Amino acid sequence: MIRFTFKRLMLMVLMLLGLLAITFTISHIVPADPAALAAGPDANVEMIERYRVEYGLDRPLAEQFLVYLGKLLSGDWGKSIHTTRPVWDDLVTYFPNTVELVVFSIAIAVLFGIPLGIVAAVNQNRPIDHVIRVLTVTGVAMPMFWLGLMAQLFFALKLGWFPLGGRIEMMTDPPQAITHLLLVDALLNGHFGTFVDALHHMVLPAVALCFPALASIIRVNRAEMLETLKQDYIVNARAQGLSTFRIVAVYALRNAMLPTMAMIGLRFGWMLGGTVLIETVFDWPGIGLYAVQAAISSDFEPIMGATIVLGFFFMLTNLLIDMIYGTLDPRVREQV
Amino acid sequence: MRTEYDGKQGVLMRKLFKLTLVAGVAAAVLATVSPAVDAFERRNGQKIMVMAQRQAVPIMDPSIKYDASIRTMQQAMYDGLMKYTGTPPTVTPWLAERFEASDDGLTYTFYLVKNAKFHNGDPVTAEAVRWSFARTLKLGKGPAWMLNAFLKAENIKAVDDHTVSFTLDRSFAPFTSFLPWWYIMNPAQVMANEVDGDMGQKWLIDHEAGSGPYKLRRVEQGTLYELERVQDYWKGHKGPLGGIIYKLIRESSAQRAALMKGEADISTGLSPDEFDQLAKIKGMVTSTEPALTAFGIKFNTQGKYTSDKNLRKAVAYAFDYDALVKIYNGRAVLQTSPFTDSIKGKVNVPNMPRQDLAKAKEYLAKSQWPTGGIELEYVYVQGLEEERLMGLVLIDNLKDLNITVKMVPLTWANMVARGSKKETSPDMIAIFATPVSTDPDAVAIQYHPSSHGAYYGVHFYDNPEVTKLIEEARFTGEWEKRAPLYAKIQQMITDDQPEIFGMMRERRIVYRDWVKGFEYSPVRMTEEVDLYPMYIE
Predict the structure, then answer these.
(1) Cα–Cα distance between B243 and B239 in angstroms, integer?
(2) What pLDDT is recorded for position A117?
(3) Which superfamily, per CATH, for A87-334?
(4) pTM of the model as a whole
């Protein structure tokens, strides 16, 4: 397992380099002039040139890439030409917000998705199965932003149960940043009111965000459970008089969980980079919004910074899933 | 028939549903702890006004950048020598209680008020004014373009503690019209935070060193910015308020919901439909006045097809101008000149094109493409629904001339890049342009070759006679001599038709009826608000 992990980590470095090169090339061949945009709409030629020189945009593309890599290796993530803020400061501000949202969202999807998948499988073709299947189709088909807007209008505006958006109540000063994860920092600082408030703000965006993942988890889990429940060892367990709960929860679920785990891992990775719509609707200060703003204004170094972080965590999630696979299935462990 | 297996399933289902229910109940518990929403927020017993805004304020430094959101904050934290107020906008004395201009128009002497203080208590002096202008000129960013062709840092002198003089390289009539956008910083505070000779640039990203009516209390990038009122502001206040929260709410529907729920007190970024819905609700006050911003569909006057003036005229006469107004639910006024209404010296140009198909066909017949049969490209900002609808209007209108229109949505960055060269600038491009001052030069210069490549110069319009008039007018001191020049400029530009002169969109601002003191001025950009006079009753 150690060798396997080491190999995968080495591969990750190569993949990140490739990702960087591709992103750098694509973002630089787009016909936009970041220096002109940063200088402002009324800037004259000299002012635009000043930006171009200051940010090294006057150099050949390959040289710019090498300079960027060199800076990155020395721990300098560059700065935004648009805001002049250091990219690292921005990533530390925005990425933890996305992580918290996605973790909470995937937790909801898992908490509801796995039980519902089991219920649907155990009750195949019965009314409850049909209801759950309708839910899954809806979850896959419904645009996330629309769901978010509807949830916002109904639960926040009409019923007043949840806030319209934001990370915490606006009059609350955030706790001192220790981990930059607001929920964790609130607890570490002993601000329990802020913790509850932050959790409260997270419910609507997390629920809206989790729907596609929830639907996928239910579908995969249901299909795998159906397959597993037909296996001889399950028939044998039933013949031995084991309780249905024990058969399903202990024997069937363990095997059915392998593809479900893969789905959870993939969804987690996608959600990390795909939260922009929900972040826009709920004004969630996350990395999705940050990356899109950077892309719109052709702000290269923030684009690269966001790509590295998202790419790294996507790959890391996949690695962790593979390792969990090995833990759940001894055959995989032996192959490794 | 119910079997034993079914019964066991029932137990299983009950257990699973219990798990599901636990999660559901947890969500419901969280819902019940929802904080009660007051009519307005308070801090330390004082009312706080909440602005719902779409655009972030990534940088506060007055020397580095300005746009609608940045300037809203800069105006609240800093003072300038002069300030734009009212409708029509006038440049009124602010930190300078008065000024004098020499007869040759080269030297301006400003006399400062004596009671102005920076937020740390330091007095606002002539030296601070000199240093602030010199810093902006030296860094060469933000508003530097307005004056750097006529003013050198060494020609700004602090005559005494409260007198400062500016000597221009040559007479420049619009000089004072730019001054409201040059803010005065506290040199001692800024330089105390200098890093590696950056003149405090890093520090001023999210700090301030001003003398304005508000000071910066909190910055949460991407979420909100909080201002605390300077209660002993040297110019006083018009009504009670403890502070202002500039809250980012990016979706128009969410802004509407925030206003309805009382989570926001004022919004400036609503879509026409959301605005109209809110306008009908009791307790909402609306402001709809024409802005200085002009919307036009600019032709590339050096492009393959649109270099032909008769073709441009044909398109301008085929266009349905009323549709423009309808797209904005009637909240727009058609332009009657290349200059918008609040620009000094604006005249109503006779024979401004309006839809007239017979005339359009007449002009087309005189063009190089008398029977049409060509395709024109229309580029607009991706995601701007109003501009997309204008493109559909063009498609419909030009069908009668046998001209097809290809609609190309681009991000603003890509659109600006395409318009920066005459070889790549599209045949037609949808542009909103807001001049930075009310001086006619601010609009006229958009039709000068020095503007080629800028977003408002994507027409690459070049009429040497107009260019000469623009230059003559900007360096002429007396208004009596300038006015006729600008009247002629407006007529000549209209005749050359470098664009379809469109409309002045009304600003859509909504606020709760407890918000008082709102003062509109068309010189401000879309979504820019002067926070100084506002308070909550």
Answers:
(1) 12
(2) 92
(3) MetI-like (1.10.3720.10)
(4) 0.84
